[in-house]
TrEMBL record, chain A:
GO MF annotations, alphabetized: acylphosphatase activity; carboxyl- or carbamoyltransferase activity; double-stranded RNA binding; ligase activity; zinc ion binding
Catalytic activity: C-terminal L-cysteinyl-[HypE protein] + carbamoyl phosphate + ATP + H2O = C-terminal S-carboxamide-L-cysteinyl-[HypE protein] + AMP + phosphate + diphosphate + H(+); an acyl phosphate + H2O = a carboxylate + phosphate + H(+)
Function: Involved in the maturation of [NiFe] hydrogenases. Along with HypE, it catalyzes the synthesis of the CN ligands of the active site iron of [NiFe]-hydrogenases. HypF functions as a carbamoyl transferase using carbamoylphosphate as a substrate and transferring the carboxamido moiety in an ATP-dependent reaction to the thiolate of the C-terminal cysteine of HypE yielding a protein-S-carboxamide.
A Pfam family that the UniProt record links to this protein: Sua5_yciO_yrdC
Annotated ranges, domain YrdC-like: 214-398
Pathway as given in its UniProt record: Protein modification; [NiFe] hydrogenase maturation
Family in the record: Belongs to the carbamoyltransferase HypF family.
Biological process, per Gene Ontology: protein maturation
Source organism superkingdom: Bacteria
Protein name per Swiss-Prot or TrEMBL: Carbamoyltransferase HypF
Source species of the chain: Marinobacter lipolyticus SM19
Amino acid sequence: MTDGCRVEAAPVRWRVQIHGLVQGVGFRPFVYRLATGLGLSGWVSNTPEGVVVEAEGHPEALQNLVSGLKQQAPVNARVEAVCAEPIARSTGLEAGREFRVCESQEQGTAATRLPVDLAPCRQCIEELHDPGNRRYRYPFINCTDCGPRYSLIEGLPYDRARTAMRYFQMCSHCLAEYHDPASRRFHAEPNACPDCGPRVAFCQPDGTVLAEDEAAVSEAVRRLAKGDIIALKGLGGFQLLADARSTRVVQTLRERKHRPRKPLAVMFDSLASLQQVCPVSASESQLLTGPERPIVLLRTPDYHLAANLAPGRADLGVMLPCTPLHELLLGDLGFPVVATSGNLSGEPIAIDNQEAYARLGAIADGFLVHDRPILRPLDDSVIRVLAGQPQILRRARGYSPNLSLPRPVPVGWAATGGHLKSTVALSTGSGVVLSQHLGDMNSALGRDGFVLTVDGLQTLFATEPQCWVHDAHPDYFTTRYAQDRGNVPCAVQHHVGHIAAVMAEHGISEPVLGVAWDGSGLGDDNTLWGGEFLRLDSQGYERVAHLRQFRLPGGEAAMGEPRRSALGLLYALLGDQVMECEELAPVSSFTLTERKLLIQSLSAGLNAPETSSVGRLFDAVAALSGICQQASYEGQAAGELEAARGRNYWASPYPFELSAPEAGRPWQVDWAPAIHALLDDVRRGRPVSGISAAFHQGLVNVIVAVARQAKLSRVVLAGGCFQNACLLESTITALEGAGFQVFWPCRIPPNDGGLALGQLAWASRALWGREGACVWPYRDA
Amino acid sequence: MAHGGGGRAMAQLLDDVFRPAFDNPWLAKQHDGAVVEMPGAMAFTTDSYVVRPLFFPGSDIGTMAVHGTVNDLAMCGARPQYLSAGFILEEGLPLATLRRVVDSMAAAAVEAGVQIVTGDLKVVERGKADGVYINTAGVGKVVAPKPVEPTRIQPGDRILLSGDLGRHGVAVMTAREKLELESAIESDCASVVQPVLALLEEGIDVRCLRDLTRGGLASALVEVAESAGLAAEIREVDIPVREDVSAFCDLLGLDPLHVANEGRFIAIVAEQDVARATDILRRYPVSQGAVEIGHFVQGAAGLVTASSMIGASRVIDRLSGEQLPRIC
Ligand SMILES: [Fe+3]
Ligand SMILES: [Mg+2]
Ligand SMILES: [Zn+2]
Ligand SMILES: [Zn+2]
């Protein structure tokens, strides 16, 4: 540059790499508009790592491009990193005024964040209802802002050719939109219209087609209106729909699905219709109408719908249409429907039409199907608002598999989670991914789904884990799976996993007091843990305190029968005297002979393992208060006990005793005084609401008492028991009131659905905050 | 019973208790071993019996020690012929108890058509053993024309179960823990030699046989399927379990598929042989409840699934040791 002479800055060329959730969210069209608006030439392309831009022009315009990439990204995008570097200017053909959107580049190693399935956007909904639009009432309308993604992706980078949409050849109209940078459907991979895209059909349970297209939707509407049960092929799998106003219809569904009491979710056509039935808070409506479109649990025992939707529960799961097909159907119906997953209990949801006829043929009276294949099953996600924040209870459609964590986790690890509510976690070059809810590993189909998902995520993220982390239970399917992977397997104790998951979610590694209140998981002493207070830090963990143990007569059989937990608890309290406690519901629910045998099995320890589980204590208390002796679904007793508390928000707490430990042993939380008080109340006929409130309050007090003993300022709440909103909220309030900093699961489920993340984070924690690959061997301090 | 070396007391015991009970020309020779003629292929097996208590409803350790070993020979497609018996006795064991055990063995040997031709006896200090431990070994002539082993199983082959499940395990458990049942459940302990030989002699192509002892039907199926490199599908509704056994198992949280049996086996036969094989088995009291419960299919080696009444299917796993609940 010459002194005193102002020279126009010469054009330069930059290569800009963008990482994060930047595919399937209309990112390239956005870059195109941004770049052309700034007068830049060059191109933009998807890569397996994200999006890459090469742009050429005035340095100031390039600066604006980079800041625009960060600040003006499309609503559904998550830009995690933007790296720009100058490169040599192009010559010859490459040079010019033009800015192009390129086909994706196939080479590359690691994956980017995966695009997730999103509910129809506002513009698509408007077009769906506009008689003048060529996609008027077309059930598969979508654009770069919305539509199916993860459920139909075969591989990355995200391009139509690697999705289930490759079976559909775009018509000239759609193709023109697809190539028009000014269109909302510019590179919308699932772009489709009535002329070229997927179609719906209404079928009999044997697969015979009765009606197609518009007629299929009207047939489904007619059938639902007359009380039929319809299987609908949704976004991530089949759902069963039925009139949510009719107790009789709901009962039929329950009988056919063998689900006598499990709460069923209800789908409404709009927020307005939902609000006519029950009150919805601002944050709840935000979740309901968000693009993830989950089932939201509303705490509302009063609604004017079928009485048997969620018997005995204080909450109701509700959702709004999550695809254009649901939007059309619910709009035409004019009444809300039960929307429950299309499966037999214990099995994953059906995704294939033929499979659905075979598996759901005995449940559904008709099938509303379509011809777009679903590549991976995705259940509806379940979420609720708790302590003013969203809390995910089941992570699947709309959320999975992306998860952004505040702290990096070393690459090359995998964790296989629990045995029920399984999920898988992988640490990849672009962060940790947590699979969708994969369900129950007792079923062969569940195991198939698990294996396919692990393989699929490894392929999508081009990752080959070196260390496989699993639960300490030797007989979990997921334990055996991890051990069979060769490499280096590593066990993490169940409740350490629960607590570590919450630490990873919130990015804390300092010493914490972890309160893992749970069903039951294998403990280090070969008993069943589940009422644990563990001190965790980056070095290891220590069992600070636990619930006093009692035996579970019948082992696994006790999980479905709260009365067994009650009997075990009473036996620990009263010994053989239990025989005579006729006045107690769980005792009298067994015949004299049965009782005698069970007590013998308790005294001999015959298939009556010891447990310190708070989940089983909840079961016992629910049974003793006469609420539930035999459960037909997981968590029933605790859920109904919570609901029984009703509006009785405060009662004098039952006394739990923190008994002084023997030297070097953990403190013990003795439930004996509390159970004595409870038995007095039961005998005096105190209403269940009071018993429930006193029990909950007693538990809250005991957490605060242990926290004071442990003298750690940070307390982490984890485990399935904290699905109990009332327990979780009062615990948070009490602990915060006592000056503790409290952490609880928000973006991952408190139950075993979050376990894989905790296993991964805990096993790899020696390397927290550091770069590098897996270091082995690693041993617990 | 006094603890001591070889000595006169021991010789007395052999003469008083064992020789009369097992009376046969080989024992009469008082030789160090038995010399027997065995032309052709021979099956050879051994097993030790340490059951507690020694006597339980329907059976005892002596009967088990014979039937267990002859059944193992039968599972090889062989006709059991000669057995050895080794005893480890705890000092102080009442002579009457020993006599009962030995008499049971003798009776069982007659029933199974075998001779106990050699044996051994040791006495250990009080507290070093639980009354009586017995080891038996056995040899038998292979009569199956084709090898009876899992590798011969083909997809489509049927699984025949010889009768109801779980009685032995429940009988031993109730006796050991002194559980009070309304009416006793008796062990199914028995020889299955006759029906097995009948299958072979009547030309059924028996692909594989497996007795359902420790680990029950579940372990047997998983092991066989693993060795066969196939998957198996069974129908839970078709598996016979007596009502009292089923009620007991439900109450104690036991899975009858995992409970031990001592007179039960599965026979894997080609599909076209199912009806005839079932008829043959049903002719014998020990297998009169024989029933087809499922079949083998192409699939992951060792994957055994059971379909329930409502059509859902669960995987039957071989579990490690004590069954700790997997439900969280
Ligand atoms: Fe758990
Ligand atoms: Mg054996
Ligand atoms: Zn849209
Ligand atoms: Zn089109």
